[in-house]
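Hey, why these numbers?
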Amino acid sequence: MADTQVLGASVERGAEILTPRALAFVADLNRRFRPIRDRLLAQRAERRAEIGRTGRLDFPAETASLRAAAWKVAPAPADLVDRRVEITGPTERKMTINALNSGARVWLADLEDANTPHWENVVSGQVNLADAVRRKISYTAPGGKEYRLRNDRVPLPAIVVRPRGWHLDEPHVLVDGQPAVGALVDFGLYFFHNAHELLRRDSGPYFYLPKMENHYEARLWNQVFAHAQESLGIAHGTIRATVLIETITAAFEMEEILYELREHASGLNAGRWDYLFSVIKNFRDAGEEFVLPDRASVGMTAPFMSAYAELLVATCHRRGAHAIGGMAAFIPNRRDSEVTSRALAKVREDKQREAALGYDGSWVAHPDLVPVCREVFDPVLDEEPNQLAKRPRLRADAARLLDVAATPGQITEAGVRTNLSVGVRYVASWLRGTGAAAIDNLMEDAATAEISRSQLWQWLRYSVRLTDGRHVTPELIHSFLSEQRASLRAELGDQAYVSQRYAEAEELFARLVLDSDFADFLTIPAQSLIP
């Protein structure tokens, strides 16, 4: 313990989480696995440089025999057999209760893209998770409204925790003088405090794994799982993990990722926004054929996105794993029936497409959308809990996965302005401590901010022509930002504009967009601006 320091300020009930034994467990994970993590992050940069030089990706030749072999992942535990509706959201206390009361089959408890890693959020999120696991969570809002878990006999959702990606450190915890790996802090604290309790309640420690780029990173997670289970005397294979395939490089290694985690794997998820971000990031030096049109026009029916969505289902079902669809960003507005009607229609259309493709379930971001998703999947599933019996035959086709040039759509002034608006407003929200923000009736998180930022960078890089004939230039970006700043100041007032951190958000976002070097993740420089 002498070599583990907690630098963060005191958080209410934090002592229940940051116990000496829990911190020792986290420190052990870091000492064993941080060196491997560091090496894998360095290899990411090397691979991206190669993609930039060649403009190509392909399925690994060295694992062809693995892809041809007959093998399956471990059977799903009872409470993950039926995943037709999964609700996502941060571990803020009220949202935790609302998610657990939503009627969804799974709650994705998000410690990643929907959460700002303020130290208070990191620790209080673990407090809330521990209370949720033990079904003793409640909350009284400042106005006096009480939130409690429903007491009917309907089972509450299985809890699946999404820790931070491998790239983020936790600067408030030092192990041997180095910041701890954020993923290992999130995983370690949750697993240490809740694994035995979950098993006692006929559930288990389940995780969503984000931002992985290859099967070596999946192998590292598998090593973490094996060691953690052995350390706490829990049977090997108890942990179950669903991997978000949200990078273009991981899309070429879906089978290998499942294989590495086969004793712990339960599925793959189609993480669409980060996937688009990854395409731009990896192919940013590969030519204009990889330039994407306005974000709003790049749907899952674009040829390269459709290829990815279809391959994910075929891969999962061949290997006995669940295929989980992504999140439609549209959310209802209880004060505006027209907005709600449009949102419900968009979400229903999205879920119908996924159910028809063979997905076993899908994500929603709001409790009011749970019935919509369920109404779509119920008749498709009929009496079955999933669609694993459907085995679509699909030949893995690298050319289809990389056919970005065939994406329909245009690059418009409105697209530029939307990306700037979403980027600045989301970053301001993130800096204030809210990582899931409703902006223009869409649920935005770090992934959607990243696609906004990376698109602007890409359009600047290639000086693309807008539909009105103008080129995207630094001068145009500065002009639009100036107009946006004036509008926000007029709407909020000068004092609120500063206190709500819009000035800092604009400075950071503009720097990342205009810099000639592409930052791997906006959350890394942003992290230095939060407590």
